[in-house]
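Morning F.,

Quick status update on the modeling queue. The single chain you submitted on Monday has been processed. Sequence for confirmation:
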Amino acid sequence: MTEFITWTANPALYDGFIEIRWYGLFFAIGFIVGYNMMERMFRHEQVNLKWLDSLFIYVVIATVLGARLGHCLFYAWDYYSQHPLEILKVWEGGLASHGGAIGIIIAIWLYSRRVTHRNMLWTFDRLVVPVALVAALIRTGNLMNHEIYGHVTTLPWGFRFIQNLSEWMKGAAPIFTEPSHPTQIYEALCYLLLFGLLLYMYWKRNAEEREGLIFGTFLIGIFLPRFCIEFIKNDQEVFEETMLLNMGQLLSIPFVIAGVWLVIRALSRPRVPIKFAKEKKK
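Structure tokens below.
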């Protein structure tokens, strides 16, 4: 094993008339795969498939809008409050997962009231299964973008990322970081494990019969690893340098607490059998 890994991946998959980045491709793949997975769940439970089309629209808009506003409000409000039109420039980067989560919660509240007329947890217990995979793909996109990496490390899997990425993509010589923790990979692996667990819970254990159990497990499985990995991740903004816990950790705590409460609540209540889940083995 080498002493470190020199990471020279180009963020752009195609750099022609229209630039196509790996990050955007992974994002799109996540939504397409997620739609297909949700369709299978809806068919499995004989749910109205028209609900799925509406759900897709709600989630896509909420994810992008929430993630963008989350970044602007939580991490760079000093700048964006003075340049509000810059908030619209999503293509220049700047998305926050916590903002995306909040956006989706608001969207599902509206979706439940206007479309399904069911408890929000009914939707969340199904939606979060593919969302865990999307989270892993997004962190893989961050890896391709040479961003959101960790502290300097002497571990043999430390990555040397390109610091002057924009200039390098235009032909300049690369300037590399010291070998650093590839925290994007750490998070992606955690989310992939969570994705596998949620699949098992839904398809093998009928966990959706305990309202909120899958959603609560998701919240813990996403935000607890995020909280822990932040300790070895570089601060995203200068103001975080003086904080005991950074912004990502502070925003993760309420989600973890909510997840624990949902799991305890779900396990303390009796199962409610799904009427149309006939093909599952009990």
